[in-house]
Design the sequence.
């Protein structure tokens, strides 16, 4: 399977030579912007995001979540969005949800995650959820999160499930970065799905009104369903699809 190489960084990586990173076959980077409702290292994002963009990388931002309720999630989302709003990000904007220290129930935590992701979309960004494989499958209600792009961490030789991006190592070495760094591979080509990326606070592009859609590189049923105001279940039924994870480039799908 074809994939695209990327990394994610935070202040732990220190000073980065982004020109060297770009030469190392790295195509995208997620940079930590915020955490909770106050983050002392926000300046790291503000300094590095423009440099990474100038080096030609696709750049997204992520927020490390502390919330356990919808109200807390909305507060954290507001802080995050305000912090990144002045940057011309050209890759998904991410909710990093990997802890449940307050022991919220599965429904409560999933409600909160959806509230955060909806806030990202309402602000005009492409929303993505980052989490661990076990956390997703046991602490969250994954069935309610299928409308969002997914980035999963699992440090193993295989992931063992579908995802859009897989964080497969936390100990990579990349030219231009002196420390170990997280390594990722993207199975969906976000760099080419330009209609899903919108400048902060601009209006979303209108969804096609056609009754059919031809699958292109990087598409998933959940992605197609979201963009055409339908559901994966409906697409599966209309098109006689046996395995929702298996669609192919050039396949024509009925939407209605």
Sequence:
């Amino acid at each position: 399977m074809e994939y695209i190489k990327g990394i994610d960084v935070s202040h732990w990586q220190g000073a980065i030579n982004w020109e060297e990173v770009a030469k190392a076959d790295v195509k995208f980077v997620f940079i930590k912007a915020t955490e909770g409702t106050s983050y002392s290292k926000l300046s790291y994002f503000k300094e590095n995001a423009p440099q990474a963009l100038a080096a030609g990388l696709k750049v997204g931002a992520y927020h490390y979540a502390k919330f356990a309720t919808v109200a807390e999630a909305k507060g954290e989302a507001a802080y995050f969005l305000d912090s990144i709003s002045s940057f011309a990000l050209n890759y998904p904007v991410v909710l990093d949800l990997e802890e449940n220290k307050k022991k919220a129930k599965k429904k409560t935590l999933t409600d909160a995650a959806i509230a955060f992701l909806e806030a990202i979309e309402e602000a005009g960004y492409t929303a993505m959820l980052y989490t661990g494989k076990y956390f997703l499958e046991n602490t969250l209600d994954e069935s309610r999160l299928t409308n969002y792009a997914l980035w999963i961490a699992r440090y193993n030789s295989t992931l063992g499930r579908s995802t859009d991006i897989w964080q497969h190592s936390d100990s990579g070495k990349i030219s231009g970065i002196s420390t170990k760094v997280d390594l990722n591979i993207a199975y969906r080509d976000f760099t080419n799905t330009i209609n899903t990326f919108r400048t902060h606070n601009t209006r979303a592009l209108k969804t096609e009104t056609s009754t059919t859609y031809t699958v292109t590189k990087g598409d998933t049923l959940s992605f197609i369903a979201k963009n055409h105001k339908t559901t994966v279940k409906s697409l599966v039924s209309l098109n006689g699809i046996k395995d929702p994870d298996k669609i192919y480039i050039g396949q024509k799908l009925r939407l209605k």
Q: What stands out?
A: DSSP finds seven helices and ten strands in the chain. Residues 212-254 form a domain with the Membrane-bound Lytic Murein Transglycosylase D; Chain A fold (CATH 3.10.350.10). The beta strands are 4-9, 28-35, 58-64, 93-96, 127-132, 149-153, 165-172, 181-186, 212-214, 252-254.
